[in-house]
Amino acid sequence: MTTQLQQQDQQKDQQQGQPQDRRGQETEDRYAAAVARYFVAWNAAGDAALEEAVAAAFTDDATYTDPLADVAGREGLIGLIAGAHAQFPGFAFRLLGGADGHHDLARFGWELVGPDGAAPVAGFDVVRLAEDGRIRSVSGFLDRVPSSAA
Fold first, then answer.
1. pLDDT(140) > 60
2. What is the pTM of this model?
3. Nearest CA among 65, 45, 80, 44 for reference residue 128
4. CA 133 to centroid of chain Cα atoms
5. DSSP β-bridge partners for residue 135
6. Confidence at residue 24, expressed as pLDDT on a 0 to 100 scale
7. 94: buried, middle or exposed (CB in 10 Å: 19+, 13-18, 0-12)?
8. Burial (0-12, 13-18, 19+ Cβ within 10 Å), 64
9. Residue 91 φ then ψ, to 5°
10. How far apart are CA 136 and CA 63, in angstroms?
């Protein structure tokens, strides 16, 4: 009898754990999707593609703050990203590792890679997500910056 009760309790725990596992995966997928859109925006080429990517990745009133920049709104973000492209032509932003997070926060590392494979700029960002999964704020930290960018 005790064995049957224990088995029933284990089955109940497993059944209750399945939705939590699914929710955990959905949350991880939410972070990964937001970060993927973030990199699409930072790597977008051309004005129209950049505007579309920023609209998909960020809320209208999103903010971005790092040691070198403090901007708000889509126009501010578009200007910031276009400025990075002008300063580092032919470079691309690349995710380092994966994104992790909790609640509406996610963090991830990144680097800026040149055509020769060198990565003169690297850092990590913490993003706050809106209900729809778009980014509403970015707090950026720079780990490696060339002296000409500072």
1. yes
2. 0.80
3. 65
4. 10
5. 58, 129
6. 60
7. middle
8. buried
9. -90, 160
10. 6
Which one, of 94, 88, 63, 90, lies nearest residue 77 by Cα? 63
Alpha helices in 66-138 (DSSP H): 73-87
28: nearest Cα among 141, 108, 94, 112: 108
What is the rounded CA–CA span in Å between residue 81 and residue 33? 19
CA distance linking residue 87 with residue 46, whole number of Å? 15
Q: Answer whether 97's CB lies under 8 Å from 110's CB.
A: no
pLDDT at residue number 18: 42
- When pLDDT is cut at 50, 70 and 90, the band that residue 59 belongs to is very high
Average confidence (pLDDT) over 86-101? 95
CA atoms within 13 A on the CB side of 110: 23
User: What are 14's two structure tokens?
Assistant: 């497993």
CA distance readout (Å), 44 to 35, 101, 137: 14, 25, 19
Q: What does the DSSP assignment read for 22-37?
A: HHHHHHHHHHHHHHHH
